[in-house]
Write a sequence for this structure.
């Protein structure tokens, strides 16, 4: 073949190659531009669809997998650092640990320690005095949800008749949604008159992600976890001290009506009930039984012996069908007037017509 013919063929091939590469390059550029436009469109769509999404909150990959009309709720990150919310979580955690001390259960993280139903089961059994028919240890997700179902049905059967709104479910608890867990614990603490002071007016923000027509919609809601925990005695002591003496006089008349049968008389509510002896004797008189002396310390000397007596009196009250006193035995022993008034007023309400 002549060199000129070879050169012409090579030149023609190079032109074809350049033309092919040009087309390929143009195609790649167009794809890149299309992707940039698509990304920009997606960004704009998200900006339109999520105008209320707070800064710091991320749309999780699993949100894209939500089924139509399904939603996911999460605690706004800023609420995690809310001092009042952190105080509420701390108070509830310490309360659970106090209630379950005999079970040797220690809760450190409400989300991680409450989601499987084990702690909630033990707590409800302790507060209600009911034994639930559930497996003690469940490792599988199905087993955990079955236990939660049983526990929550028992909880709801107790709380619903008293007007509590159920803000929790098996799914929300098992998915470690802290707001649901806290709602449940606050309801239990208040219903069973836990001897704790819950922080007042605690609210948090939650982010709701919902899929509508294939598009993720987001909104931010405010959830009120606690309102005011002030009761009649808080109001009486803080705002109407002039009426306090009237209440104390009525309670003294009530207790002496019964204690006089044993030739005993009370003149000072704070101090004379602090060792628990008069409380125990009063319960025996109100329920018409003799309390064996070996069950309590008739002349208690130490703080522990006095706490034992008051705690034993509380047990007698519960045996008589009364709710567990809101006060702690230690508060009564420490001459806390409000705690003592609460206990005595509870007795007065239930036994004021007893002879």
């Amino acid at each position: 073949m002549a060199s000129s013919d070879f050169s012409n063929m090579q030149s023609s091939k190079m032109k074809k190659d350049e033309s092919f590469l040009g087309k390929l390059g143009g195609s790649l550029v167009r794809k890149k531009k299309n992707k940039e436009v698509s990304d920009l469109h997606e960004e704009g769509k998200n900006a339109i669809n999520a105008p209320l999404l707070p800064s710091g909150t991320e749309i999780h990959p699993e949100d894209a997998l939500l089924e139509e009309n399904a939603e996911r709720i999460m605690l706004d990150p800023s609420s995690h650092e809310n001092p009042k919310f952190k105080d509420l979580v701390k108070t509830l955690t310490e309360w659970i640990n106090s209630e379950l001390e005999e079970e040797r259960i220690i809760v450190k993280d409400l989300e991680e320690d409450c989601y499987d139903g084990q702690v909630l089961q033990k707590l409800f059994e302790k507060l209600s005095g009911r034994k639930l028919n559930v497996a003690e240890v469940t490792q599988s997700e199905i087993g955990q949800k079955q236990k939660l179902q049983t526990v929550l049905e028992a909880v709801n059967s107790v709380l619903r008749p008293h007007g509590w709104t159920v803000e929790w479910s098996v799914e929300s608890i098992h998915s470690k949604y802290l707001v649901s867990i806290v709602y449940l614990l606050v309801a239990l603490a208040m219903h069973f008159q836990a001897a704790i002071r819950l922080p007042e007016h605690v609210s948090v923000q939650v982010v709701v992600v919902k899929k509508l027509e294939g598009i993720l919609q987001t909104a931010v809601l405010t959830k009120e976890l606690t309102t005011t925990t002030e009761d009649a005695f808080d109001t009486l002591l803080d705002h109407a001290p002039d009426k306090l003496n009237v209440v104390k006089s009525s309670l003294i008349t009530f207790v002496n009506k019964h204690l006089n049968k044993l030739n005993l008389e009370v003149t000072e509510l704070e101090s004379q009930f602090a060792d628990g002896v008069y409380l125990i004797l009063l319960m025996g008189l109100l329920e018409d039984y003799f309390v064996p002396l070996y069950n309590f310390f008739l002349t208690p000397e130490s703080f522990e012996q006095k706490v034992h007596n008051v705690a034993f009196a509380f047990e007698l009250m519960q045996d008589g069908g009364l709710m567990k006193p809101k006060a702690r035995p230690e508060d009564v022993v420490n001459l806390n007037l409000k705690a003592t008034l609460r206990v005595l007023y509870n007795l007065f309400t239930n036994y004021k017509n007893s002879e």
